[in-house]
From TrEMBL:
Pfam families: DMT_YdcZ. Keywords: Membrane, Transmembrane, Transmembrane helix. InterPro entries: YdcZ. This is Putative inner membrane exporter YdcZ. The chain crosses the membrane at residues 6-24, 36-55, 61-80, 87-106, 118-135.
């Protein structure tokens, strides 16, 4: 378990760092937004797929994560130049919070069932208010 975490934690930290579009900004100026964000993301995903995921036996539906990751990169390439990095990331977090609340409420994916209550709803509403404030011109 700890051996797996030694690999996973640095990968997650690296992915979070790269998601901030730190590396892609200089490349984007020289080669266009598709080359700056799409190609490095695709290469990183392929690296993970071939050297980390494929050697393990996983259910086929879990490989959908790769498709969703590519969709995430595609959407971010289109949206970030229009609304900015902070608003884009905040919108992603809001979407993840809503979806994870649904998963928790119904106990999907084999997780513990955690009811959706007013406290959680208030948190989501406040996050959407913050998103509106960030996006408002």
């Amino acid at each position: 378990m700890i051996g797996v975490m030694i690999v996973q934690i640095p990968l997650l930290v690296t992915a979070g760092y790269l998601a901030g579009v730190v590396i892609g900004q200089k490349l984007q100026r020289k080669s266009g937004s598709w080359n700056a964000n799409g190609i490095p993301g695709l290469l990183f995903g392929l690296f993970i797929l071939f050297f980390w995921i494929l050697p393990r036996s996983v259910p086929k539906w879990q490989l959908l994560g790769g498709v969703l990751g590519a969709f995430y990169v595609f959407v971010m390439v289109l949206i970030v130049p229009k609304v900015g990095v902070a608003t884009s990331i905040m919108a992603v977090v809001a979407g993840q919070l809503v979806m994870s609340s649904i998963i928790d409420h119904f106990g999907l994916l084999g997780g513990q069932q955690i009811p959706f209550d007013m406290r959680r709803m208030t948190g989501i509403i406040l996050l959407f208010c913050a998103l509106w404030l960030f996006y408002k011109k």
